[in-house]
Every structure is written in C-alpha cells, then in structure tokens.
Amino acid sequence: MVLADLGSRLRGALSSVESGSDDEINQMIKDICSALLEADVNIKLVVRLRDNIKNKIKSEITAHDNTMNKRKKLQKIIYDELCGLVDSHEEPPKPKKLSAQKKSASTQTVTKTINGKKVKVKQNSGPSNISSYVIMFVGLQGSGKTTSCTKLAVYYKKRGYKVGLVCADTFRAGAFDQLKQNAIKASIPYYGSYLEQDPVKIAHEGVEKFKDEKFDIIIVDTSGRHRQEQQLFDEMVQISEMVTPDQTIMVMDGSIGQAAESQAKAFKDSANFGSIILTKMDGHAKGGGAISAVAATKTPIIFMGTGEHINDFEPFKPSTFISKLLG
Ligand code: GDP
After folding, report:
1. For the chain, percent helix, then strand, then coil, each to nearest 5?
2. Could you tell which of 308, 311, 312, 316 is best to mutate to test the pocket of ligand 1, judged by most ligand atoms within 8 Å of the CB?
3. pTM for this one?
4. CB 137 within 8 A of CB 145
5. For the segment 297-315, what is each residue's pLDDT rounded down to a tens digit?
6. Is the CB of 257 under 6 A from ligand 1?
7. What's the pLDDT tens digit per position in 197-218?
8. Can you tell me the ipTM of this complex?
9. DSSP 73-139
C-alpha cells in the first residue's frame, strides 16, 4: 500500500468513530494496525503502537468525556503515537559556517594558572581548529544518492553556505558525469576524475582541495552496489577513515518495503551513519519499511526526496509528515 492510501486508511479509521463506543474504538485500532502492516511497517512496531494506544485510551479517556471530547482525545493519541513511530528523538547534526566558527573560536574563555593563580583568559582557538564540515553519503545503487547529494548541496547553498561536491563513485560508469551535470546545473563546485580508479584517493584529494579553499560544507558521494557488498562496505570504511566525515548520511529508497530494516542495519554496522535521507517519497512510496528502519537504527530522517528535480527536496519533520498523512 502506498503512502497516499495509508493516509486515507488512517483518516478513514479515525472518522469511523462516531459514538465513541468500545466496539468502535477497538475496530478503529484494528484498522489502523492493519493499514500500517500493509504499508510495510514492522510488526513489532505495530504491536507496540497498538499497546500504547490502548494504554493511553485507558488512562486518558474517562466515562465523563462526551463524544466530541472522546474523538478529540483519540485523534491526539493516534497522532502522538504515529509521530513516535517516525521520530528517532535524535537531533540531526547542524553544519556551522566557517565564519561562525571563527567567531566562536575567538571568544572562547579558558582557565589558566599564571604565577600560581587561576585566571580566566579569552583565547583564540586558531585557524587549525576551524574546519569544513564533511558529509559522506552512503547507500545502495539506485537509491538516489547522487541526486540527493546535489539536492542537499543546493539546500545549503540557498542558505548561504559555500558547498563543494566530491564524486568518489568510481564503480558506476557515468556516476561522475551525472554528478558533474547536476553540479553544473546548480552552479556547485565539484571534484572528480575520469581516470583515477581509487575512490579513497579521489575522496581525500577532493576533500583536501575544498578544505584548502575554505568551503563550509563538503559533500562526498560514494559508490553503491547491489552485489559484492563486502567490498562496498570495506571501501566505505576506508573512505570514512580517510575523510573523517562530521556526518554520514544513508540514502534510502522510500519504496523498498520490509528490506529497509536489514539494509539499514547492515549499513549502520559498517558506516555508522547518523541520519537518513528518504528518497522517492513521491509517486508510489510505501514509506512503512523506511519508518521501520528509523526505529531499528534510532536514526533521524533529515530530508525527503519528493521527485527527480533538484528542488524536490524537503526537510523531514515527524509532526509535519504525520499531519500531512492524516490530512
Ligand atoms: P544512485 O545510484 O544512488 O546515485 O541513484 P541516482 O541518484 O542516480 O538515482 C536513481 C534514480 O532515481 C534516478 O533516475 C533519479 O532521478 C531517481 N530519483 C532520485 N531521487 C528521487 C526522488 O526523490 N523521487 C523520484 N521520483 N526519483 C528520484
């Protein structure tokens, strides 16, 4: 079942409660659970959600509530529980502009001992402490990694960051061309090579180049594959050790269903990503599998791709997502 249908099933379940009788409420809970299961949300999560809803209903809805109050409370309980499903309760890291880092570095106060006395001194942290923010992308081939790299670069560029793109995908023929074309269209500086076969070398050179040129954010695209997975994971670890990213983002196709959980866990073990970008949430995305992946890895979804165009990209907010789903 695709997301749009999930939304209408959930809305239908909620609006089917008229008198607020126990039977109606039980039927509503059943409908919500089966809709979530059909959207590929993991069964364990659905069972937990069902128990939470039942417990909340017991403690929050009383015999004194009239029908209207009951319905309002029910809606709030369902909304909160659905938000809980997609909310990792982790804040995604926020890149700092180099100019802002300079300011904070220059106002740092430290305690030093001078002639046996403790004094507070303001200290410049020095330019060596100021560094570009490196973001590394990981994910399977076809998930939308390369497209999302440019989308994220454009998102930050619009907010005044100086952003560079590095193509360390030497596996897929045409990957560099694709990134280059996207980057040129969006006027984002890029780095890559047609000749060099070693992705670790390219990643290192690209990141160093943009660091030297004082870029605020450097985004590194890595290769994704369907097969030879161990080799992919080894390569990812090597690139990560070389460029020491401040943030690793896993790109996940929003329509992959139940496979999402094991895929996310496998990447988490190797790449320890800190956030997720869900792609293809337009069209026929199921979304439920990805929701389960969030829960399995306790990692926040930070952005959502909603189309092939560079601007089809929006920050992911659990409450906004669920509000939209519930109409
Ligand atoms: P990669 O192999 O992971 O780098 O994947 P690509 O970035 O090449 O994307 C694979 C395909 O998915 C391309 O045809 C993209 O245009 C398409 N794509 C990427 N993101 C989205 C999205 O959010 N929505 C839709 N509909 N298509 C997307």
Report:
1. 50, 15, 35
2. 308
3. 0.84
4. yes
5. 778 889 999 999 999 999 8
6. no
7. 899 999 999 999 999 999 999 9
8. 0.99
9. HHHHHHHHHHHHHH----PPP----HHHHHHHHHTEEEEEEETTEEEEEEE---GGG--PEEEEEE-
